[in-house]
Design goal:
Layout lengths: L2 E10 L2 E2 L4 E5 L4 E5 L6 H9 L6 E9 L2 E2 L5 H4 L1 E4 L11 H8 L5 H14 L15 H14 L4 E5 L7 H18 L3 E4 L12 E3 L3
Parallel strand pairs: 4-9, 4-10, 7-8, 8-9
Antiparallel strand pairs: 1-2, 1-3, 1-5, 5-6
Helix pairs in contact: 3-5, 5-6
The chain binds adenosine-5'-triphosphate (ATP).
The site of adenosine-5'-triphosphate has 12 residues, from helix 1.
Protein name: ATP-binding cassette domain-containing protein
GO molecular function: ATP binding
Pfam families: ABC_tran (PF00005)
């Protein structure tokens, strides 16, 4: 599974946000996207996810495994997104949040899968917690699991580490990188932090 952006140009109010973007992200790779505030990084992710607002003009194509997603509605794309703030339903427990996101299977199967994925990230003791009872790092990990429960074919990461303290950020970054490699899906990471890039992954710097 690879993710390809072909000659993507996004315009707003008759101006291009960035020069045409062409890139291919391989299965298991985290490709970073950097650039000054407002240059269009999050907008580019929305284009890939299929959630670009109508105020934007877009041309170019997104392909997943060589198949164009342009005509696919958001629910068919199976592209997962992780944001700065964990997106969890506040009135559901951790296990309920994860089961809600699970793509298929009986209730018992979903519960078992969920408990296994929580054990994988050392959070089985949080299964019955509500999101407000989680630390920032725990909520980030649950949010990642929630995104993955839908079995996405690609992952978009919009500054998911930026609100975490240094130590938590390092642990979570490692978890994200190893998870992407293990699931063998392509991922694009928007970040302002050079530490997220180091020399471990390729990076595109957008300018405006
Ligand atoms: N909903 C919106 N309506 C109108 N303009 C928008 C909207 N969202 C973003 N923009 C504009 O689109 C441009 C790109 O914004 P975007 O959020 O993609 O930048 P970014 O590179 O992700 O910024 P940051 O690093 O600060 O998150 C900016 O000029 C912004 O003002």
């Amino acid at each position: 599974m690879n993710l390809e952006l072909k000659q993507v140009v996004i315009g707003l109010d008759n101006r291009k946000l960035f020069e045409p973007v062409c890139l291919t992200v391989s299965a298991g790779e985290v490709f970073s996207l950097m650039g000054p505030s407002g240059c269009g990084k999050s907008t580019l992710l929305s284009f890939v996810a299929g959630t670009l607002g109508e105020q934007f003009d877009a041309s170019g194509d997104v392909l997943l495994n060589n198949q164009s997603l342009r005509a696919e509605p958001v629910e068919n794309r199976r592209v997962g997104i992780l944001f700065q703030d964990p997106l969890l339903f506040p009135h559901m427990t951790v296990v309920e949040n994860l089961m809600f996101a699970a793509s298929a299977g009986s209730l018992a199967e979903k519960r078992q899968q969920t408990l296994t994925s929580l054990a994988d990230i050392g959070l089985e003791h949080c299964a019955d917690f509500y999101p407000r009872q989680l630390s920032g790092g725990q909520a980030a990990r649950v949010s990642l699991m929630r995104t993955l429960a839908a079995k996405p074919r690609a992952l978009l990461l919009d500054e998911p580490f930026s609100k975490l303290d240094r130590e938590t950020r390092e642990h979570f970054r490692t978890l994200v990188f190893t998870t992407v490699a293990r699931r063998n899906i392509p991922a694009i990471l928007v970040t302002h932090d050079e530490d997220d890039v180091a020399d471990r992954n390729r990076v595109l710097r957008l300018n405006n």
